[in-house]
Amino acid sequence: MEQFTDKVVLITGAGRGTGRALAEAFAAQGAIIAANDITPINLDETIARITQAGGHAKDYVTDISKKMPVQAMLNEITDDWGRLDILINNAHVDPKKALLDLDEWDWRRAVDVNLTGPFLMAQSAGRMMKAAGGGIIVNILSGGEGHAALKSSRMGLIGLTVELADEFSAYNIRVNAVSKGSVDLPSEVKEPARELAMDIIQATRYLCSPEAAHINGKIIITNH
Question: How far, in Å, CA of 130 to CA of 137, rounded?
């Protein structure tokens, strides 16, 4: 069943890995994919794979850590498709250094992409969704793996998810997160019925489905 037919889904970090897998999974269920990454090199393959499978997708090469490019991208998506139904914040960077060896540029870049990026994306997309009468935002957490900068920004993203869910609920916008693997979370933000029951793709699609209409401000813990 193509439960996301004609839904416009924006996925950041869609050029490879989990982002590409998410793009293909949503496209396979009828979604129109707005695929974002900072470089077109990997996006080309993502778009090709989707279109060859009969899906609909377009690439949007943008640095999500910068406000003006984010706003320009969302304006372009509106021009192209008329709306935005779902935002999936997946892009992240992980400087592979211990704290004693981590330089300031790497730290700031990680925070900019992993935390400021989702904030800017959610803020601009949230305004569009508010005007449209509602929408869905899912933040992808990194799980237990990663190094200092990634882990630190991930904890900030958990807090941002909860606050976005609280503020955006008045506009019929649901905001949740998915964690790949184990991560320490306050019990009130876990979704226990789904804990360890799905993989990252299944959990994200579930949160974007009508079945999850009652879930807001929660984090699903996946098995992988």
Answer: 12
Question: C-alpha 207: how far from its chain's center?
Answer: 12
β-pair partners for 9: 33, 86
pLDDT of residue 219: 87
Domain ranges for the chain, please list them: 8-222
- Per residue, the 3-state secondary structure of 100-159, as one string, reads HHCCHHHHHHHHHHHHHHHHHHHHHHHHHHHHHCCEEEEEEECCCCCCHHHHHHHHHHHH
Q: Find out whether 115 and 157 touch, Cβ atoms under 8 Å.
A: yes
Specify the DSSP element, H or E, that contains 13: none
H/E stretch holding 73 reads: helix 67-81
Provide the whole-model pTM: 0.92
- For residue 39, give both structure tokens: 């470089």
Answer yes or no: are the C-beta atoms of 27 and 52 closer than 8 Å. Answer: no
* Residue 186, SS3 per DSSP: coil
95-137 pLDDT tens trace: 888 888 889 999 999 999 999 999 999 999 999 999 999 999 9
The Cα 50–Cα 61 span in angstroms is: 17
CATH classification of 8-222, choosing from 3.90.1150.10, 3.40.50.720, 3.20.20.70, 3.90.480.20?
Answer: 3.40.50.720
d(CA 149, CA 146) in angstroms, rounded, equals 8
Torsion of CA 74, 78, 84, 87, to 10 degrees: -20
